[in-house]
Amino acid sequence: MPVVNEQSERMRKFKNKGKDAAALRRQRVEVSIELRKAKKDEQILKRRSISFGFDESLQEEQRNEITLLSLKEIVEAVNGSNPELQLQATQAARRMLSRQKDPPIGQIIELGIIPRLVEFLTYADNASLQFEAAWALTNIASGTSDHTRAVVEGGAIPAFISLLSSPHMYISEQSVWALGNIAGDGPLYRDALIDCNVIPPLLALVSPVTPVGFLRNITWTLSNLCRNKNPYPPLDAVKKILPVLICLMEHEDKDIISDTCWAISYLTDGSNDRIQIVVDTGVLPRLVELMVSPELIILTPALRAIGNVVTGTDEQTQAAIDAGVLAVLPSLLQHARSTIQKEAAWTLSNIAAGPCWQIQQLITCGLLPPLVDLLKKGDFKAQKEAVWAVANFTTGGTVEQVVELVQSGVLQPLLNLLLAKDSKTILVILDTISNLFLAAEKLGETERLCLLLEELGGLEKIEALQNHENNMVYRAALKIIEKYFSGEENPDLQPGTDQEGLYDFSVEKQDFDF
Amino acid sequence: MELSDANLQTLTEYLKKTLDPDPAIRRPAEKFLESVEGSQNYPLLLLTLLEKSQENVIKVCASVTFKNYIKRNWRIVEDELNKICESDRIAIKANIVPLMLSSPEQIQKQLSDAISIIGREDFPQKWPDLLTEMVNRFQSGDFHVINGVLRTAHSLFKRYRHEFKSNELWTEIKLVLDAFALPLTNLFKATIELCSTHANDASALKVLFSSLILIAKLFYSLNFQDLPEFFEDNMETWMTNFHSLLTLDNKLLQTDDEEEAGLLELLKSQICDNAALYAQKYDEEFQPYLPRFVTAIWNLLVTTGQEVKYDLLVSNAIQFLASVCERPHYKHLFEDQNTLTSICEKVIVPNMEFRAADEEAFEDNSEEYIRRDLEGSDIDTRRRAACDLVRGLCKFFEGPVTGIFSGYVNSMLQEYAKNPSVNWKHKDAAIYLVTSLASKAQTQKHGITQANELVNLTEFFVNHIQPDLKSASVNEFPVLKADGIKYIMIFRNQVPKEQLLVSIPLLINHLQAESIVVHTYAAHALERLFTMRGTNNTTLITAAEMAPFVEVLLTNLFKALTLPGSSENEYIMKAIMRSFSLLQESIIPYIPSVITQLTQKLLAVSKNPSKPHFNHYMFESICLSIRITCKANPDAVGSFEEALFMVFTEILQNDVQEFIPYVFQVMSLLLEMHKNEIPSSYMALFPHLLQPVLWERTGNIPPLVRLLQAYLERGANTIASAAADKIPGLLGVFQKLIASKANDHQGFYLLNSIIEHMPPASVDQYRKQIFILLFQRLQNSKTTKFIKSFLVFINLYCIKYGALALQEIFDSIQPKMFGMVLEKIIIPEIQKVSGQVEKKICAVGITKILTECPPMMDTEYTKLWTPLLQALIGLFELPEDDTIPDEEHFIDIEDTPGYQTAFSQLAFAGKKEHDPVGQMVNNPRIHLAQSLHKLSTACPGRVPSMLSTSLNAEALQYLQGYLQAASVTLL
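Above: the input entities. Below: the C-alpha cells describing the complete assembly.
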C-alpha cells in the first residue's frame, strides 16, 4: 500500500506551493509568489514511493545491506546486458531512491541511466525489471522540476502510457503513479501527457472491481491532470474526465473523495466558462454535503471548490446558494481550524459581492452573527477575509441591508481592525466606512453615524491614519475626516469662468437643442 | 566635466560658498551647482570630494549635496530629461557601497540615504549585486561597517511595512529573504554572543546594541507582509533571543538622560513591536511563545521607572498587553485574581500617576495639555495606554477589575485626605482611575455615552469632586480643579440635573482661576452643559434657572478673556456665544457693555487674525447680540450700526480676508432688521460690492450673494431709481456665477431676488439676454444642480410675469423653444426638484402653464399638456424632503457642512427660508384643482377629454382626490 510521506519538512520539496491566491470576485488578484511555508492542507503535487509491497517486511538494516551496490556498479550493470544484474542494479537504484532521508535523486540522474531505465519499461517479458524501473523512475520524477524533466526527456511518457494497459496490475498501478508525478510538475507536462492520449487508458482502469488502493492512485493522477492554470487543461480533456470524477465522488473511501474534490476545486479555479462546466454536472449539492464532512481532507477541497464557484457569475453563485451553501457556512466560519475559517469567509465575501437579493439570502440564513464573531475573534487571515465580506456587503447591499449589518454589531470589530498591520485591510475598511456614510446620508443619519464612529473609538483611529506611510491609506482617511468630521470641509471647487476682468453682462445667441 | 584636479578645486570653492551665511554669496553658488549638475562626471566629482577632500566640512557638504542630487535626479521620468548619464549611474552603483562603509558616520548616513533612494528605483533588477555586496560585509567583523549595511538595508526594506501586497513586491521580498535572512540570523546570533563576551566593555556594547536594534527593525520589515518560511523555521532562534533581550539589563547601557530613550529602551521597544506583530498576524504559529512574552513584558513594566525616556517602551509594552488580553483564547493568562491584582497594582496604577512632566505641561504649555487631555490627542502617552489596558481587561473581567480598583481609589483618596498639599497627586490618579474605569464610550459632543454600571458616578461626584470645587480658593490645587471640572464635563449625561445645577455657580466661579487650564475647562464645561438637551428638544438647563447667575456669568466670561494667555481663548468665546443663545432676552440689559467689549476685541484681533475658531464664535456672539436686542426693540439696529460700522470699514479697507465674509453676513443681518427703505449708508457701499476682485474669492461668494439679496429685498426700488446704471454690473455678477458649476446656484439665488423684487420695467431690456445665457449653460454643461435651480427659476418667472410671457419670451429666442424646454427639461426633470418651497414654486408655475397659457390648448404644444400634468402630479406625490429644523442653538461650527474653507457660515446670522409664493397659494394641490376647474369652465369638454385619453390611471386617481378636496368638478 502506498504510503505518502506526511512530514511537513518533506513538503517543502514539493514545488508550486502557493495555490491559494486570495481571489476576489470583483478583483481576483493572483499573487503567485508565496513567502509562507507550503500550506499543510494543500493537496500533494508529487509523491515518492517509500515503502512498497514486499519491502515492507524487511527490516531497516536488511534493506541497507541489499542496497550496498556502488553507483559505479549500478551504471555498469544497468548498461550491461545481463538481465539478472540489470534487475539487481535497478533494484539497488530504486532502493536508494526510496530511502527515507535524502534520496540521491540528483546523483542517480547524473549516472545517465534514465534512458536505459525507460528502455527497461518496454521489456514486456521481464515484469520484475519493468516494475523496478517504473518505481525508480516514479521516485526520480517526484523530485524537483529538473528531476522530472530528466525522466520526461528520457522518453518516459509514451512508455508509461503503454504500461497502463500492462497485464500486471502492480505495473499498471506504478505507471499511474509515475504519470501522476509527471502531470503534477505543471501545465507543460500535463498537456504533454494529454497530447499523448493518456486519458482513455487511464479512465479505462476505473471499474467497480478496481481495488481501493489502485483507485486512489488513479484518482490522484486524474486530479493532477485537472490541476494548474496558465494554461488550463484542454476543455475536451476536462469533459472526458468530469463524468468519472462525479462517479468517484460517491465512493466511500475518504482519500478518493478528497482527491476528487481537489480535482473539482482545480477545475473551478478559473474563468466563468470553466466554472459553468462543473456547475452543469449538477455536482454542487454533493459538494455542499461534503463541506460538513468531519474529515478535514474532504472538507478542505470541497469548501475550496464551492468557494471558487461563487467567484463566478450571479447565476453560478445562485446555483451554489440553491445547493445550500449558506446553511453550512456558519459552522465553517466558526471551525476550529483557522484556514477553514479563512476559506469560508472568503467564500462568504464573494457571495456578499453579489446583487442585493443574494445579500438578502445571506442575511436570512443568519450569516451576519458568525461574520461579526469572526471579525471579533478570528485569526488574522480570517479577519481579513471577513473585512472583505463586509466591504462587499456595503457596496452591493441596499440601505436597509446595510442598516441591518450595522445593527448586527459589525462596527466595533471592524473599527478595531483599523489597527491591523496590513495596509490593504485598512484601506478596505476605510472604503467600507465611506460606503456606510453613503447609506447614512440617504437616511439622513450622517450625524448619528459620526457619533457612533467616535464612540466606538473609530474617529481617533481614522485620524491617526492620516499619518500612515501608505499614500492611499492616508488619503482615504483624510477624505473621510474632511468630508464627515470637519466643518471646514470642502472639495476643491474651481470657479470655472470664461469671464475675466469686469463683469459686463452680455451673451451671444446660439442655436439651442437640448 | 572631466575628473580633473582643476574641476575638483572649482567644485570645492563653490561648495564652500554654499555654506556662506550671506545669501548674496550662497545663492549664486547654489545656482551654479544646479546649472552643472547635468554634466557627466559631476556626481563622481562629488564622490571623490567626499572621500578625499582635505577639509572635513567639504566632505560633509559634498555628501549632502550628493544625496540631494540623487534625490532630485535619479528617478527616470518619462518625457523628462534624464540628467544622469548611464556611465555615471554604473560608476555610482559600483562604488557607493564600499565608499559608504568606509566613511565616518556623518557621511555614512548621507550615503546610506542615497543608496536607498537609488535602491528604490534600481533594486533588485538594475542592481542585482547590491544584496550580495551587503551580505558579504557581515563577515567583516567590523561593526562600523556592519551597522552601515544594516542601516542601508533598513531604509531599503522598511517600505515592506506599508505597501500593498503585489507580485512585484513579493518577488522582491522573496529575493531579499533568500539572500538576506540566513546571514541576518547568523549575524543576530553572533552579535548576541559578542554582547556577552563584551559585557563589561561599554563602548563595544553600544555598537553591538545599535546593531541589534537595526536587526530587530529588519526583522519587523521582513516579517510584515506575511510570515516567511525561513522565519517560521527559525522562530525558536529569534524568539528565544528576543525574549532574553527583553529581560536583559546591563548597568553599562543605562543612560543618565531622563528624556532621551537609550539603546536598551529602543531595542526592547522594537522587540515589543515584533512580538505584537506576531501575536496579531501569526497567532497560530506564535502561540507557543506568547505566554513567555506576556510574562516578560509584564515584568518589564513592573521594573521600569517613571522617566520620560521610558515612555515609548512603556506605552508599547502596555499596548501589547492590552491587545492580547482581549483575545478570548488568551483570557486564561490574565484570569487569576493575583495576576489581575498585580497588573492593576504594578502596571496600571503607576502609569496613571501625574508626573513632573505633566505638571510642567499643565503650567507652561497649557494649550498642548488641553489638546492632549481634552481632545484626546494622547494616543502615545502612558496614561492613555494604561487606560486602554483597563478597558481591555474590563471586556472579560469588569467585576474583578472594578473591585480591585475600588480598593486603590479608596486608599489613594485616604492618602490625599491625610495631607492634601503633599498628596494631591494621589487624588488626581484616583479621579483618572475612576474616569477610565467608568467610561466605556465617549464623544466630544455628548461626553461619556456608555458607563460602567459598577461605578457609582454620582456618589463619587458628590463626595469627592464637588468639595474641591467648593473650596474657597479657586487657585489652590489647580490640577485637581481641572480634574473635577473635567469630571462634570464628561459625565454630564450620567450625573443628575440637580447636581449639574449645583455645579453651575462653581464653574462660573472658576472662570476666574489664574490657571489657563482651569478657567478654560470651566468655560468649556459651561458651554457643554448649556448644549445639553432636555425634554421637548429644549435645553436641559433653562434661561429661568440661569437667571440668578446672568450678571456674574457674563462678567466672569469677559474677565476671563483678560487673563494672561487667554486673550483669544476659543473655549471662552464659545461659552459666551452659547450663554447668549441660552439666556436670550435676559442679556439685553448688559448689551451696551457687551457690544463694546466685543467690538474692541474685534478691532484687536483684526490686526492679525490667528485663531479661526475664536473669531468665528466672536462673530456669532455679535450676531446673537443683534438678533436678541432687535427682536425686542427693532430701533436698536442703529446703535449696533454705529458701534460696528467703523470697525467694519477698517476691515474692508485693510482687506482682512479672514473677516470679510463675516462682515458681509453681519451686514446682511443688520440690513434685514430695517423695516423701511434702505439707509443711504448702505447705498453708498452698493457699487463696491459689485467689484470683481471681491467675487474672485470663493469664500466671499455666499455671504456677498446673501448681502445683495438683502439689498434687493429692502431696496429694489432705490436701486432701480438711484442706481439703474449699476444693474448691468449686478447682472454681470449673476453671469459670472452662472458660468461656474460650483457657484451657479448662488447665481440663481441672486437672479431669483432680482426677478422677485426689481420693478419689471427696470430689468425689461435684459430679460431675453438672461434666458439666452441660461440656455447656453443648459446646452453646454448642464448638471443636475443647474437643472434644479433652472426649473425653480423659470417657474418663479412664470408666477411673476405669467405663463404667456414665459412662452413668448422662449419662442422669441428661437421658434418652438418653449415646447423643447417643456419636453426635454421640465417634464423629465421636474421630479429632481427638492425642498418644500422649491417644489411649491414649481407646482404653482406649472399650474399656470397648464391653465393660463392659451398656446398650450390650441397649438402643437397641446400634445405636451397631459404629460406636463402627469409630471406635476408626480412632483406632488414624491415623498417630501425633510426640512432643517429650527434648532440653531445646538448648531456647532462642525455641523455646518457645505461651505468653502474660506467661508464659515454664521448660524446666528442665518435667515428664515423665504417663500416667494407665500400666502398666495396655501395648498398647491387644491390650487391645481381650482385652476383646472377655471380652465374647464372657459372651454367646456376639453379638459376631461384630454385627461381621459392619456393620463395614467394612478395619476388620474390622485387628481380626482385633489378635485374632491377642492370640491370642484371639471366640465
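Note for the figure: The CA atoms of residues 136 and 508 of chain A lie 91 Å apart.
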